[in-house]
Amino acid sequence: MKTYQVKGILQQKSWLLNPFVTIDSKGKITKIASKGTSDEYIDGYLLPGFQNAHSHAFQYAMSGLAEIHTHHSRKDDFWAWRHAMYEVALSVNPEQLESIAAMLYVEMLRNGYTSVAEFHYLHHDDQGLPYAHISELGERLISAAKTTGIHITLIPIFYQKGGFGLPAESHQRRFLSKDVDDYFRLLEASSASITHYENAQIGFGIHSLRAADKNSMERIFKEGPKDAPIHLHLAEQLKEVDACIDFYGERPAQWLLNQGILNERFHLIHCTHLNPQEVKGIATSQAQVVLCPATEGNLGDGLFSLKAFQNQGGKWSIGTDSQINLNPIEELRILDYGQRTKTHDRAQFTSEHQGDAGKFAIDMAWHSGQKAMGEKKSNFLTVGQSLDAVILNANAPLISVSKPENILATLVYSGQPNDLMGTLVNGQWVIKNQKHLNQEAVQTSFTKSMRQIKIR
Ligand SMILES: [Zn+2]
Predict the structure, then answer these.
(1) 72-76, 159-163, 347-351, 355-359: which range is least confident on average?
(2) Binning pLDDT at 50, 70 and 90, where does residue 74 land?
């Protein structure tokens, strides 16, 4: 048991100032009170930790490397980037994946994420053969999360095809399941792997409509676990939309909506290219959208129909996807500013054109994000929840002179990474003054692996 006194804690409606926050030995909040005695004073504001609803850990190794443009005759688009990404996917062994993921998770925690959903499709060895322990690589991600303390939802992904109606390509060999039974065995092994870490959960899903045939998708959605979140990429690329029309005679979102299966357990990644009927259909189905604004911008994907989706009750979260940006605040800004630039309207993060945009963004990204993790929390930082929080320094220049009601917008629109004092997971400091508890060991192992891979 431990009691912190803090400058403020964000509750669902507003800040509670100078509270005493007590946790039990597992880091669960047992009491939030205005009076008491504390074991430690934190001169900072506690916000619920950010939820990273879409991550491919191995891609951290190539972050920033696809910016040297060398294709004179070819457009440097998503598909060219994907080719470079496959090269990395083929070169990483289990030990290297674990050390890359651990470094990545430290960086996520340092930026304020306390949970990550790993959309995990790198399953086999470099020849495409299953490891003796079939969830070896998923287990490495769990182990990396355990080293760093981040909460992880492992989402083993079904990957089968090289495109609509096309066989898989050789460089996709590490991703593939032979059939649905093969995938369910992987899912079962992964479910056993998560038992090695108390902050791990399981999800499931398919890579995209282009990577799975219709019968396999139907079986996975129908026979998969009934209480886990379901993730898939949807309509990220125009070429993918066109290929879907050629194959199914329908656009991807339209096709998926017509299957009549969407519900609040679905988390649809990107949804960049939707028409107004599809926006309405997804919002109405209660399926949620995971936006990865920095990656979508970096890859030149396009802009999501944010306002129309929100206005119809649509819910969204954020993800780091390709790991090109690990700062959740910056993700929210990129998302907002893309929309402002397109529409010439500054009020994007609001439901009825009024309200605090900073609060709206944090609220939306947290609520939908924790559902993407498989959590069912309904309010910020309440009794019974684990104390997972990012701490904003009360002495940061603009924060120190702001009224409580201006703090969230100040953070979201002008906050800088060094305005954060640290990150608590299960009530324990995992990051303090920009450094992780295991910083040296994690970084040494990461450096060694990256030198072996020789891609940078
Ligand atoms: Zn992705």
Answers:
(1) 72-76
(2) low
Catalytic residues: 270, 321
Q: What is the pLDDT of residue 129?
A: 96
Residues 126 and 191 in one domain: yes
Say if CB 208 and CB 233 are below 8 A apart. yes
In-domain check, residue 323? yes
Q: Are 148 and 428 in contact (CB under 8 A)?
A: no
- 8 A C-beta contact, residue 452 and residue 96: yes
Same domain, 353 and 389: no
Q: For position 49, what pLDDT does the model report?
A: 98
Environment of ion ligand 1 (residues, CB < 5 A): 321
Whether 199 is in a domain gets the answer yes
For residue 72, the CA-to-ligand 1 centroid distance in Å is: 27
Q: How far is the CA of 55 from the centre of ligand 1 (A)?
A: 7
Co-location of 356 and 418 in the same domain? no
> What are the DSSP E strand ranges found in 69-112?
none
Tens digits of residue pLDDT in 272-291: 999 999 999 999 999 999 99
How many domains are contained in the chain?
Answer: 2
Tens digit of each residue's pLDDT (9 = 90 or more) over 305-324: 999 999 999 999 999 999 99
The continuous run of DSSP H or E covering 255 comes out as helix 252-258
CA of 290 to the centre of ligand 1 (A): 10
Distant-in-sequence contacts of 439-442, Cβ < 8 A, 24+ apart? 439/106, 442/99, 442/102, 442/103, 442/106, 442/147, 442/148
Residues 303, 265, single domain; the answer is yes
Range of the domain at 293: 50-372
User: Are 72 and 16 found together in one domain?
Assistant: no
Do 57 and 35 share a domain, yes or no?
Answer: no
Does 133 lie in the same domain as 96? yes
The domain boundary, picked from 334, 356, 372, lies at: 372
Is 448 domain-assigned?
A: no
Q: How far is the CA of 14 from the centre of ligand 1 (A)?
A: 34
**Is 275 found in the same domain as 126?**
yes
In angstroms, the CA 212 to CA 324 distance is 27
Tell me the CA–centroid distance for residue 363 and ligand 1, in Å: 23
Given a cut of 70, is residue 71 above it in pLDDT? no
The answer as to whether 445 is a domain residue is no
DSSP string, 134-194: TTHHHHHHHHHHHHHT-EEEEEEEE--EEETTEEPPGGGTTT--SSHHHHHHHHHHHHHHG
Residue 156, pLDDT > 90, answer: yes
Structure-derived torsion over alpha carbons of residues 159, 161, 165, 169, reported in degrees to the nearest 10: 160
Kindly give the distance from the C-alpha atom of residue 196 to the centroid of ligand 1, in angstroms, as a whole number: 26
